[in-house]
């Protein structure tokens, strides 16, 4: 099984995460940020990842440190679970609607961290979750997972729908990218590595 776990503790957050890439979509989540738990549930369910995230953060300040640090931890465990990447599909892409919202996400498990994020009209809050934290999460995930991730919100007027569409599209794109293709016998790169 392609599984990884991590514990990270700073003066701002204490986080435990684990992932099974070949799971069934189960999740055990407690971040202290209700809407973020809802989004991570979608990541697990629609990516078919088994995901555990337990976090305590300085929510008396705001949710920024908690969301960003979870992105850091999840990026790292996904990279660890992929390993050297033999047999990996490597690329994934999804376009997902959520009522009036439409999100497009592309993922390359390339070893080259990069985030392209465009959601100019994504503003406001959902519960205690600031919409600007979506970009912070994806950036932390991309950098620490050493992946290229493009996230583009194509349409959306409802903040909840817009963010949910992005997380569902990310789940499907990431699931496709980390899938193993039995026809691929080596690392899916002409340079022979996706980890450096």
Overall description:
The protein is of the alpha+beta class. It has a single domain (3-177), classed as Ribosomal Protein S5, domain 2 (2-Layer Sandwich), CATH 3.30.230. It contains four helices and ten strands, in the order βββαβαβββββαβα. The protein has helices spanning 34-47, 64-82, 133-145, 159-177, and strands spanning 3-9, 13-20, 27-30, 50-57, 91-98, 101-108, 114-118, 125-126, 129-130, 148-155. The strands form three sheets. Strands 1-2-4-3 form a four-stranded mixed beta sheet, with helices on one face. Strands 5-6-10-7 form a four-stranded mixed beta sheet. α1 packs parallel to α4 (159-177) and α2 runs parallel beside α3 (133-145). It is globular.
List the helices and strands and how they pair.
Blueprint: E1 3-9, E2 13-20, E3 27-30, H1 34-47, E4 50-57, H2 64-82, E5 91-98, E6 101-108, E7 114-118, E8 125-126, E9 129-130, H3 133-145, E10 148-155, H4 159-177
Parallel strand pairs: 3-4, 7-10
Antiparallel strand pairs: 1-2, 2-4, 5-6, 6-10, 8-9
Helix pairs in contact: 1-4, 2-3
Quaternary = single chain
Give the overall average pLDDT: 94
CATH architecture: 2-Layer Sandwich
Task: Enumerate the spans where pLDDT stays under 50 for 5 or more consecutive residues.
Answer: none
Name the CATH superfamily classification.
Imidazole glycerol phosphate dehydratase, domain 1
The CATH class is Alpha Beta
Strand order of the largest sheet: 1-2-4-3
Number of helices: 4
Distance between the termini: 23 Å
Q: SSE string, helix = H, strand = E?
A: EEEHEHEEEEEHEH
Shape: globular
Q: At the third CATH level, what is the topology name?
A: Ribosomal Protein S5, domain 2
Q: Give the helix level as a range of percent.
A: 25-40%
Radius of gyration from the alpha-carbon trace, in angstroms: 16 Å
């Amino acid at each position: 099984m392609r599984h990884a776990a991590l514990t990270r503790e700073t003066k701002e957050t204490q986080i435990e995460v684990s992932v099974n890439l070949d799971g069934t979509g189960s999740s055990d989540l407690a971040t202290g940020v209700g809407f973020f738990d809802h989004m991570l549930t979608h990541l697990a369910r629609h990516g078919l990842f088994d995901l555990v995230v337990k976090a305590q953060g300085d929510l008396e300040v705001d949710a920024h440190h908690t969301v960003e640090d979870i992105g850091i931890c999840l990026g790292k465990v996904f990279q660890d679970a992929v390993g050297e990447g033999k047999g990996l599909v490597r690329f994934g892409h999804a376009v997902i609607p959520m009522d009036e919202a439409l999100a497009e996400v592309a993922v390359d498990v390339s070893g080259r961290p990069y985030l392209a994020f465009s959601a100019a009209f994504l503003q406001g809050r959902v519960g205690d979750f600031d919409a600007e934290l979506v970009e912070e999460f994806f950036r932390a995930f991309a950098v620490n997972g050493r992946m290229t991730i493009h996230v583009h919100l194509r349409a959306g007027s409802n903040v909840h729908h817009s963010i949910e569409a992005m997380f569902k599209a990310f789940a499907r794109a990431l699931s496709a990218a980390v899938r193993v293709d039995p026809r691929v016998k080596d690392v899916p790169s002409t340079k022979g590595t996706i980890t450096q």
